[in-house]
Amino acid sequence: MKLAQLNIARIAYPLESEEMQDFVLALNAINLLAESSSGFIWRLKDDANNATSFQMYNDPSLIVNMSVWDGLESLRHYVFNSGHTHYLKRRKEWFIPLEQTGTVLWWIPNNHTPTLEEAQAKLDLLRANGSTPEAFSFAQPFAAS
After folding, report:
1. 89-113 in b/e burial notation, b at 16+ Cβ within 10 A?
2. Is residue 106 part of a domain?
3. Claim: this prediction has a pTM higher than 0.85
4. Of the residues 6, 14, 89, 108, which has the maximum number of CB atoms within 10 A of its CB?
């Protein structure tokens, strides 16, 4: 089993704005850091090599990040103990807090590539039921079954 993750965020300004410039300019470096991190397997990306063109919930102010990892510890290390952390600390500059959680984790078969529809269903499940083995959070993870 592999670990899939989805993270959505509501941008505070248009991506082309001066206020978002540091975030947009960091995307390639942060994506490269993820791809070179131990345990990284796959990430959602568009022709610009990021995922900013994808939408969820029919809301153009939401941006998407989705990836697959070999397990929880490798994803946790990347998110909280790498160069990614610097940008994570700055998220209040670029994003409006969501009313509900914007991050979901779930286990997938080894050769499966998750879809945005699947990810949205997992996020909806987490929002409705809290952490379960089918959809969970960093705070309340479940082992692969």
Report:
1. eeeeebbeeeeeebbbbbbbeeeee
2. yes
3. yes
4. 6
